[in-house]
Specification:
Number of strands: 0
Largest sheet: none
Strand content: under 5%
Radius of gyration: 22 Å
Length: 412
């Protein structure tokens, strides 16, 4: 009974902390609410948000369907586009429409954030406070609609680790249809089910995820195919963009040719390294333990790193924490994210005509510093999983090294 009381008190405390974070973040964006997000002022004060900017830029202020505009369609998968369009009907008309649209979406995002903190608490209660109070989350909460995809991704992880596979597959499909990042989680999901020797579950999970994703996307694909394809074409065709390794190298004079091929190659290398790592773990890991490693690694080599991407990584880092010795790496990574957050806005201020800002080299170094701290936290998690079996250890298969170098032991 006392454990239940303590658990309930902790949940209430986390909700209060999440509310506090939501209010602090809203205060950070308040300056731009009063200036209608004018540039470069919104960069100088680090309160830029896609929410009001795309409200007018994508004709949402006239309630145009999010994917009707073809090349002017929203640059997001269909669930997020539907949210952007649906909430436009709540915004008041007139001079306060931008603020009203932002405020209503901010309210929904705050509720989703509180819900996400509670999911993290269910997965990793001892460190859930970090999810509620991460500085990177405070400064980035209202930049975009990402929390819609993050909440469903965390739920998918929660139900997968509790072997509610059908529910997890449906939620993961919804998350992929919202932002697409969580598609990479299918790799550790397949591996974990394979380690459990449940091949039927792999097939069922993949089919369910694909079917639900297709059911969500099909109406938009069939009615406004050009607008639906705009998101995917943009990501295939874009060059090196803000925050990426490749953009940082270009600012330092290292220009990469055939970037699309190189990013595909590096992605394949990351996925291959992830498979080797998973095979090296002697026990079957939980999805919560390995999700940050894969997601952070793929974002390190992607063609863009937007400042709100920390919202995806922060809860994944928290649910991966297993030991207090890992907290130093977590906070070092948060410092890297905070430095990057300041750097990108000051760099954008510089290139947008402000009298002051951060020059190219400073921004490149801040971006590379963020990548370095991410890699360090990844390495800390990898080392821990390789050396320490989890409480749910199920040693069912040997390590990859044993397979490669001891294969001939049984022969005469």
């Amino acid at each position: 009974m006392f454990a239940t009381i303590r658990s309930g008190s902790l949940a209430k405390t986390l909700v209060l902390l999440a509310v506090l974070t939501s209010l602090l973040s809203f205060a950070k964006f308040d300056h731009c609410r009063n200036t209608n997000w004018a540039a470069p002022d919104s960069y100088v004060h680090a309160c830029y948000s896609d929410i009001p900017i795309l409200f007018s830029a994508r004709s949402l202020d006239s309630h145009q369907w999010a994917y009707k505009g073809g090349t002017n369609a929203v640059e997001y998968p269909v669930v997020m586009g539907a949210v952007m369009w649906a909430t436009s009907w709540i915004a008041p008309s007139g001079s306060h429409s931008l603020r009203g649209y932002f405020d209503f979406n901010a309210l929904l995002i705050a509720l989703l954030f509180i819900f996400s903190v509670l999911i993290v608490w269910k997965i990793r209660p001892e460190y859930a406070y970090l999810s509620a109070l991460s500085p990177g989350v405070i400064v980035a909460l209202y930049i975009n609609w990402d929390l819609w995809g993050i909440a469903t991704m965390l739920l998918a992880i929660y139900y997968f680790d509790r072997r509610r596979l059908n529910v997890s597959a449906i939620l993961l499909a919804v998350s992929i249809a919202t932002k697409f990042f969580p598609v990479f989680l299918l790799l550790p999901i397949v591996f974990i089910l394979w380690r459990r020797e449940d091949i039927k579950a792999i097939a069922k999970y993949l089919v369910t995820t694909a079917a639900v994703w297709l059911a969500i996307n099909a109406p938009v694909m069939l009615t406004t195919p050009q607008g639906w394809w705009h998101f995917y074409k943009l990501n295939l065709d874009r060059g090196s963009d803000w925050g990426s390794l490749w953009y940082s190298l270009s600012l330092m004079g290292v220009h990469i040719r055939f970037l699309n091929y190189l990013t595909i190659l590096t992605l394949l290398l990351v996925l291959s390294a992830m498979m080797v790592f998973l095979l090296e773990i002697e026990h079957t890991p939980t999805l919560a333990e390995v999700s940050f490693i894969l997601m952070a690694a793929t974002l390190c080599i992607g063609k863009v790193y937007s400042p709100q991407y920390v919202l995806w990584l922060a809860p994944l880092a928290v649910i991966a924490l297993k030991d207090r010795s890992q907290l130093f790496a977590f906070w070092l990574w948060q410092i890297g994210e905070m430095i990057y957050h300041v750097a990108i806005w000051q760099h954008l201020a510089s290139v947008s005509g402000s009298h002051f800002g951060l020059p190219d080299l400073g921004y490149a170094l801040a971006s590379l510093g963020r990548i370095a701290t991410s890699i360090y936290l990844i390495a800390v998690f990898v080392r821990y999983l390789l050396k320490t079996p989890s409480p749910q250890a199920q040693i069912s298969r040997g390590r990859l090294a044993d397979f490669l170098f001891s294969a001939g032991a049984s022969y005469p």
